[in-house]
Specification:
The chain has about 240 residues and is mostly helical. About 50% of the residues lie in helices and about 10% in strands. Strand 1 and strand 2 form a beta hairpin. The longest helix is centred in the first third of the chain and has 24 residues. The protein binds manganese (III) ion. The site of manganese (III) ion has 7 residues, from helix 2. The site of manganese (III) ion (MN3) has 7 residues, from helix 2.
């Protein structure tokens, strides 16, 4: 149950987040433009804040998107403004070759660029009425790689549970192989030459309001919101 005060807070947060989303171009990733600062924009959430209820609550989604992801975008823009040589690069370009990013902004780009990239994908990896098992070529590939869908689910859940502190667990394409791995902080598999197909954010900000210390309960619930259409599409384009 939410109290009236929480409801009011949710309403004002929602208004603020909507203002942010509608006043910026709804591009997922952006690029470093001529002005440097402000080149990257927060993508609009592709559904309502309450779309993933009851598995992920509306207040968590509002703060996660409108505050946490927004902060990664702001800080990435600040970092690239300090490095004009990065002009024209997309966030993918930056993360794929972190060594080419000037040292003075490399850590900021790794953390905030990773945060922007990972979250831009994460919102699309979920949907209302998601979950179930993947079909088609991806379904077959998952069966081959992990024995079965339940084998996959168990392995990804295990990786997500075991992330120490903040990070992510992923289903990635490594060459032609499907693999499960985790990354610490906002590091992204794209920086390791892999293609992230599906990822779960296990930072406490992703689940703490509803699940507190019970990360395994959040992970279990999250499987009910996976957008397999999106994941299958990424797989087929690989
Ligand atoms: Mn997050």
């Amino acid at each position: 149950m939410i109290t009236r005060r929480q409801a009011l807070r949710i309403t004002s947060l929602a208004a603020a987040a909507c203002a942010v989303s509608s006043s910026r171009i709804a591009v997922a990733q952006g690029a470093v433009g001529s002005s440097g600062a402000g080149a990257f924009a927060l993508p609009a959430l592709p559904y309502g804040f309450d779309a993933l209820e009851p598995h992920i609550d509306a207040q968590t989604m509002m703060i996660h998107h409108g505050k946490h992801h927004a902060a990664y975008v702001t800080n990435l823009n600040k970092a690239v403004a300090d490095a004009p040589e990065l002009k024209g690069k997309s966030v993918d370009d930056l993360l794929k070759d972190l060594n080419s990013v000037p040292e003075k902004v490399r850590t900021a780009v790794r953390n905030s660029g990773g945060g922007h990239f990972n979250h831009s994908l994460f919102w699309q990896m979920m949907k209302k009425g998601g979950g179930g098992e993947p079909s088609g070529d991806l379904g077959k590939a998952i069966d081959e790689a992990f024995g079965s869908y339940s084998g996959f689910k168990e392995k990804l859940s295990d990786a997500a549970t075991k992330v120490f502190g903040s990070g992510w667990a992923w289903l990635v394409l490594d060459g032609k192989d499907l693999k499960i791995q985790s990354t610490p902080n906002q590091d992204s598999p794209i920086s390791q030459g892999k293609k992230p197909l599906l990822g779960i954010d296990v930072w406490e900000h992703a689940y703490y309001l509803k699940y507190q210390n019970k990360r395994p309960d959040y992970i279990k619930a999250w499987f009910n919101v996976i957008n397999w259409d999106f994941v299958r599409d990424r797989y087929s384009k690989a």
